[in-house]
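Message: I would love a firmer grasp of how sequence relates to backbone shape in proteins. Thank you; the sequence and its tokens follow:
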Amino acid sequence: MLRSYKFLMRPTVRQEQALRQMLAAHCALYNGALQERREAYRHVSKTTVRYGDQSAQLKEIRAFDPEYHGRWSFSSQQATLRRLDKAFGAFFRRVRAGEKKPGYPRFKGVGHFDTVTFPKDGDGCRWNSTPYDRQPRVRLQGVGHVRVHQHRPVKGRVKTISVKREGRRWYVVLASDQVPAEPLPATGSIVGIDMGTVHFFTTSNGEHVDNPRFMECSAAELAEAQRALAAFPKRTRRRTKKHQSAARKVTQLHAKIRRQRLDHHHKTALDLIRNYDVIGHERLNTAGLTKRPTPKPDPDHDGAFLPNGAAAKTGLHRSILDAGWGIFLSILANKAESAGRRVIPVDARNTSQTCPECGHVAKENRVTQAKFKCTACGFTANADHVGALNVLSRAGLALCEAA
């Protein structure tokens, strides 16, 4: 199996300065390569510059400026050029798909270029395979041996190493393959879960798991920090320590919310994995569920639009994104693979409008957000519980078909 490990780095003052310089150099390389592609296409008869052409120029760039570019790993610079090539590949794929806004690759600001990847352990970087109970270090070319807070053992073979900046913290991300599975004892239990916003999810056993609503709990503090940041005039932004402090405050709050959400997702997913052999859930398209409604032009008035329900959906979209369904289901699938469990995504259509007793499907069955009452047989239950029961039924059917 493939697994990634993310550990907090504890660089010294000089090492942190070198890490910032490394990010700045790779950011300049990325922007320079993007500029070359743009200029070649615009001014040289629509010439297309590819990754191979730019990778071949790296030796000349490093020789021309050995202090700025030659100091860093050659393979990590190639990885940065591959990152740009991947961005162009995604852009052309969206163009071929006919999307209205395909999203041409943008130049990166120094504050928005936060990751440097080393494609191979031992080439410009080295993960010190020190025993778990000792102080591990990671060696980075141009930076030195940086201490790492390793909170769990690394299994498998380390393939790639990435250095990531999040606010004022630095992390090392190890991608490993050949990670052995650790199957858990069988429980003989199967469950279906129905994701929601009032409750994080409801199981087919009738258990409700609370939705912590981390973003909503920190909304007042975050709004105050954003107002303080927006109060700075444009002419003084990014020039004073007070502005930098206000921007850092907003970043720290968002990072805290993200860590709280991930911690909740990991613990909740682990609890499911330990208690059930098979877990069924709805196959959700979170991006589609949170997509902004299409504007409806008013045919009687030029430049005017008809109501499309966008304002009413804003709160629902915010709640869905705050719950983080997609991240949770991804974590659940990864933990299930490691533990030898099975996760079955099923069709989400009409799960909360289908009667689990008689199978009658009708929109009127869903009386309110929380109440379900079948118009055919009169069956009454919690709507989320009904959805979980239907998910369980579909997961069991998929399990029988696979057998």
